[in-house]
Write a structure and sequence with these properties.
The protein has 308 residues and is of the alpha+beta class. The chain has helices at 11-29, 44-52, 68-80, 97-102, 108-117, 148-159, 171-182, 243-254; strands at residues 2-7, 33-38, 61-66, 87-91, 122-131, 137-140, 143-147, 189-195, 198-211, 215-217, 220-221, 234-239, 265-267, 272-277, 281-285, 288-292, 295-306. The chain folds into two domains: 3-119, Rossmann fold (3-Layer(aba) Sandwich); 129-306, Sandwich (Tumour Suppressor Smad4), CATH 2.60.200. It contains eight helices and 17 strands. Its cofactor is Mg(2+). It comes from Dolosicoccus paucivorans.
């Protein structure tokens, strides 16, 4: 057996490097060989994953060290290549939604022990997202967002280009600054949802998020009624707000209080959702930014194997 480690050392403001050293120490204590592949640019994790498919032996294992975005790239790549290779995650990102949802109490050693000594991985629900216009396929573990939340995420990513923001203690402040910069451009969007046998059209949607776990992003639990292992989608709808209302909404999110009423947070009965977007809009999937032109997204619950 050999463990192939795909790591984003810059995740969590450099936390990835610290977690990687810990992983090396644990694997060495078990006398398990390993190979480390470090990402060097955006989307590199997916490139590494694609190259890794032909190198793996049946007894080998794949360990991801990074945040939700790194995991998203790797799982999406394996899924698109029809190579459903089980993975384990050592969390090193800013929010770590996947870790909080599925393995919140596990230490790094316990996660690695599961990876090494569990014969059968666990099948977990994930969101298969198909872009009808481009034919692109994505797999998200936690959330898919459109509109203002994706705008803030993109602005926070831009800020990371400055070295001052690349420290773990600066993460929350960076998102608050990104929020402040985004408040000057509060744009609503048109969107139509098809779910549970009905259509819902809105022309004043500020942001929307489709969730597979209780976590909205950044480790913030939003839908406490949604269990992580359910094959069920949750839909957040936030219509036009004033800047002051939006600040209040965000303050509740950061304090991990219930920020929306139940009419704005729907628990769908059918594990399928269609999202029709007639204009250009920003999108984020598990913290990874996408620019979307007019299209229809088909989102469905499926499953993927993990060592948890």
């Amino acid at each position: 057996m050999k463990v192939h480690i795909i790591v984003n050392e810059r995740a969590g403001g450099g936390r990835g490097r610290k977690v990687l050293r810990e992983a090396h120490q644990i694997l060495t204590s078990f006398q398990i060989g390993f190979i480390t592949y470090s990402t060097e640019y955006p989307d590199h994790a997916g490139v590494i994953a694609r190259q890794l498919i032909s190198r793996l032996h049946p007894e080998d294992r794949v360990l991801v060290v990074g945040g939700d975005g790194t995991l998203y790239q790797i799982v999406t790549t394996f899924y698109k290549e029809k190579a459903l290779i089980p993975v384990a995650l050592l969390p090193a990102g800013n929010g770590n939604d996947f870790h909080e949802a599925f393995q919140p109490d596990k230490t790094s050693r316990e996660i690695i022990e599961t990876l090494l000594f569990t014969h059968q991985p666990t099948q977990l629900p994930v969101m298969r997202c198909y872009n009808q216009e481009t034919g692109n396929l994505y797999v998200a573990m936690n959330n898919i967002g459109f509109g203002f939340n994706a705008q803030v995420n993109a602005k926070a990513y831009e800020l990371k280009k400055s070295a001052i923001w690349n420290y773990p203690v600066m993460n929350r402040l960076r998102y608050l600054v990104a929020l402040g910069l985004s408040l000057s451009k509060l744009e609503t969007m048109e969107v139509e949802f098809v779910y549970d046998g009905q259509k819902k059209y809105y022309n004043d949607m500020l942001m929307t998020s489709i969730m597979n776990t209780p976590y909205f992003g950044g480790g913030v639990p939003l839908n406490i009624d949604l269990q992580s292992n359910e094959r069920q989608l949750s839909l957040l709808l936030v219509r036009k707000l004033s800047p002051l209302q939006l600040i209040g909404f965000t303050k509740k999110l950061f304090s991990k209080k219930q920020a929306v009423d139940r009419d704005s947070l729907l628990k769908l009965q059918d594990p399928y959702l269609e999202v029709n977007i007639p204009q250009d809009v920003l999108c984020e999937m598990d913290g990874e930014n996408l620019f979307v032109t007019p299209t229809t997204f088909h989102i469905r619950i499926t499953q993927y194997p993990f060592y948890i």
